[in-house]
Amino acid sequence: MKNSIKSARSESGLSTLSGAGVWRQAKTTILVLMFLTLLSACGKSGGLGEGELRISFDEASVGLTRTDQEIPDTSDFILYVADSDGEVIYEGKYGDSPEVMNLAAGSYVVRAVSCEFRKPAFSLPQFGDEQCVVVPEGGVVNLRLLCRQMNAGVRLKVASGFLASFPSSALLLRSQDGSLTYSYSEKRIAYFRPGNISLVMTQGADDKVLMTRRLESQEVLILNVGVVADGETDPSSSGVSIAIDTSRYWLNESYVIGGSNGKGDSEDMSLTVSQAKASVGEEDVWVSGYVVGGDLTSASASFEAPFSSRTNILLGSRSSTIDKEACIAVQLPSNEIRDAVNLVDNPQLLGKKVCFKGDIVESYFGITGLKNVTDYKIL
Question: Which of 148, 165, 192 is the last residue of a domain?
Fold first, then answer.
């Protein structure tokens, strides 16, 4: 179907853009909800005058992504432009879109993706960007879209002895959107929308959740699954190593069935924020993360200086985290530890990585917390 431009304000007599007809039913539910969420933040359209919107890709981000993963040409990306009422102004290939869009002054959501992604799938990374933009009357807006991975991935590496130890079992990767069966010989990466992803072992009618991780966009988790050898109590393969590969974050972890992975036993083996959230009840363990905020209450937190409370801080999995629910709340004891790491007296620690030793509790100011802290280390 040929792409066109649809009138966003036909009653005003303005020359506006027309889109590619009616959305397919399958797209409507997902995309419209996503648009409306962003559009509520953008606000309502303004006056009746026109402005210009020029859309392009940031070539630097495209180049970085291509060194890491083969992706379609950006001209083949699917481009959507919608106004603040949710009306689609343009839908079609980015390469077919007009260089200049004359739009009624107001707020718009612009989204460009390499493919549609609605449920878990193998070998289907989704690249693109989504931004809210305000077009002023008589103004020209040059919008530069980034090319980055928008979903998350998991790849399992199953040890050779696993099949012999569990011949009647199967491994599943499960999220709220569905699950994928991961055969022992599977080499592909399984992709999911950002959120909690569980590794599940099935044996007959029984399902056992081995672990759960929260993955964000741009993250790919490589998970080694093995079994404890006879007489082995401290597998050397356990541990976490993180390496940043161009525009994506690659995580490498090990899970050994039937043994203690040694996680949390030392600073070098500290639990990540997501691991700590899945380890409520563990005591005297090390947890590491980035100091991202403080001034906690049951309903809010502060992520910017100046801070007023010396009794607590927030740890995030990234230094840019600004979502309280994605963090661990750390209660600072009334001793030299509080003096050294509270953000009132040490604002320079904001964004720094710190390791704490304490007890993981289910709730501290409404989120997973770390209490009874006895030691720390600034990394």
Answer: 148
Give 244-253 pLDDT, tens digit per residue: 333 455 655 5
Give the total residue count for the chain: 379
Query: Can you give 177-229 as a three-state secondary structure string?
Result: CEEEEECCCCCCCEEECCEEEEEEEEECCEEEEEEEEEECCCEEEEEEEEECC
At 132-185, the pLDDT tens digits run 999 999 999 999 998 889 999 999 888 877 778 888 888 999 999 999 999 888
Ordered DSSP codes for 260-277: ---TTSSSTTPBPHHHHH
For the record, the structure tokens of 204 come out as 């007959």
* Owning domain of residue 202: 152-262
Burial bucket for residue 228 (CB in 10 Å: 0-12, 13-18, 19+) = middle
Q: Contact at 8 Å (CB) between 196 and 175?
A: yes
H or E element: which one contains 50?
strand 50-57
* Position 235 in a domain: yes
The one-letter amino acid at 38:
L
